[in-house]
Amino acid sequence: MVQSRKSGGRGPALQKQPPGESVLLNAIRARAQAGAHSTKGLSRVRLGIGDDCALLRLHPGEELAVTTDLSLEGRHFRLDWHPPESVGHRALARGLSDLAAMGARPVAAFLSLGLPRELTEASGSCRPWPRTWVDRFFDGLLALAAQHGVPLAGGDLAESPLAVADIVLAGSVPRGQALLRSGARPGDRIYVTGSLGGAAAELAALGQSPQRFASATQASKTAPHLYPQPRLAQGLWLRKHQKASAAMDLSDGLSTDLARLCAESGVAAEVDRAALPLAAGTTAAMALHGGEDYELLFTAPQSAKLPKSIAGVKITAIGRILPASPRKPRVFLRTEKGAEPLQPQGWEHFSGGN
Amino acid sequence: MVQSRKSGGRGPALQKQPPGESVLLNAIRARAQAGAHSTKGLSRVRLGIGDDCALLRLHPGEELAVTTDLSLEGRHFRLDWHPPESVGHRALARGLSDLAAMGARPVAAFLSLGLPRELTEASGSCRPWPRTWVDRFFDGLLALAAQHGVPLAGGDLAESPLAVADIVLAGSVPRGQALLRSGARPGDRIYVTGSLGGAAAELAALGQSPQRFASATQASKTAPHLYPQPRLAQGLWLRKHQKASAAMDLSDGLSTDLARLCAESGVAAEVDRAALPLAAGTTAAMALHGGEDYELLFTAPQSAKLPKSIAGVKITAIGRILPASPRKPRVFLRTEKGAEPLQPQGWEHFSGGN
């Protein structure tokens, strides 16, 4: 480390004092272990928080899906807008959504957390054991973890001027059966789960009146921006029934993510604007470019028979896969005026203008 | 995302323009794939960068060791002190050192990288293809990855006001054979690999004259702070020969890390100050509390016969494991004056005074 060190040892943390890394780590470890006892994924975690590494065990014939997602204060959340429970929930949901897109079953989560010291200190509450920002962050993260049976098996902790949460998810999938982005073929139909644009619409509304951010609750499951629901059951269903030729999750917006799927598959695509399942209160632009819906985008051969809903979530055919043509765009949008190129306008870091 | 989005699509990146996430990702992917072809660990990575998750395959009878390490600008490195190659090298070395401590063999690395935009842009070089900070960061990271045969299999990328690199390492270890912190027993001898305090001494010297940071090179392997060498071969040897009862890596300083090993094992320990293998130009205080040496700390039964060096690195007995006593300190330092408590004075985040 490049900063000055402290001069001596310390006793246990006192209330309203910075708790110290080891005290904070022990608190997280206790909460993670309490949660792990109630999770179904426990059997694949042989060793959790407390050693240099966690140890995971796979069943014969499985492979491991691994994904990392970085959430940064000011980029992915705002401390003055998002309740801490939402920040924890969203960090985990991003990783779970990646597992869902592969048809993987969660095995374990890991979290690298960098926090300003004040977020580990109690605020001016009159309760005898006031809950800190980091306590409430873990409330949100561990509630979603419990819902999907995924133990928190390790991570790292550091003091940071900027709040940073990097989530790592490991999941299991039978060998050779993961849903990939690269399997779409010309003639396949394109589908999405749920509805699109809801997260963007909620964010826009909340941006108008940030005080409304505090009133949404994790339990209601009707706040697609604050508390997105990763489509794990739907991804598992698609993988088990071998219906999908390709799949990914919609994190950066349909126009951007579909172009990525097409690039990986070496194909093009056409989306019917009239077919888009718009969330309540959204525009077609929000559905096409809004991002963070964490729905699944997948393709299936025309001959595949798909149900109207999977595990309680509707699915909608929104277009078709075309052969790729050199020097032509990857994705077209079909409206009553015909087909026009659909530029990727979803989220991209380091892009011009922001 | 909570920031404003860009208004339209973009063409390929131009020189000295911000390259955009997808261009940067494609460049990283190309470099990672070029590196992966020369790595021994390739066979366990079935799918690398480019999909929602990477896919890892284990051989029968193996389990997976997973660790994450967060490196933050201003805490773990300084942009005005550390060459970008050193930042990349050190980020990966921290994770590899955790694998070494378990006796695991690297399978794959994942990197979540948050960077200020200017670190992705070319500086004012007159070369036709000026190398950016992020190019040089990957030079350092991928050189160490190639040395240890570990492919970069995935990660995440985001624009960030603070440079952030979270490294995730996955390694394989035969089931039930990982070296743990929890196995030390009273009577065991305590050992370390290499020498101690070198990283702290180098950092102190470099802090006096930061311009010297630029002259150290990754290839020289004689810069313990800038380019630490994770002890993977030594960890593998200890695990294969089943000599160690417990092990961990020395990242935060002997006084702090030995106390953690003792806590996990439920024991106490005594260190002989005269036995400490001091690196050139270091003091006993640097060796005890300096941290970031990334040597292995391990214990072995008195009856175990250990060589003087393992894979070219010397090992030194520095003390012994004692039974734990309630209300007594975990770790003692024996000097010519007798044994006195050794307070943990290594690195701890969120601790008082800094």
Task: Provide structural commentary.
Two copies of one chain form a homodimer. In chain A, helix 2 runs parallel beside helix 3 (133-147) and helix 2 (84-102) packs parallel to helix 5 (232-240). Chain A is built from seven helices and 14 strands. Chain A has helices at residues 21-36, 84-102, 133-147, 198-208, 232-240, 254-265, 284-289; strands at 45-47, 54-56, 62-72, 105-115, 152-159, 164-174, 189-193, 246-249, 267-272, 296-300, 309-310, 313-323, 331-335, 338-341. The longest helix of chain A is centred in the first third of the chain and has 19 residues, at 84-102. Residues 3-18 of chain A have low confidence and may be disordered. In chain A, 58% of the residues are buried. In chain A, strands 7, 8, 9, 10, 11, 12, 13 and 14 form an eight-stranded mixed beta sheet that branches. Chain A has a four-stranded mixed beta sheet with strand order 3-6-4-5. Chain A is 25% helix and 25% strand. Chain A has 354 residues and is an alpha+beta fold. Strand 2 of chain A pairs antiparallel with strand 3 (62-72) of chain B.
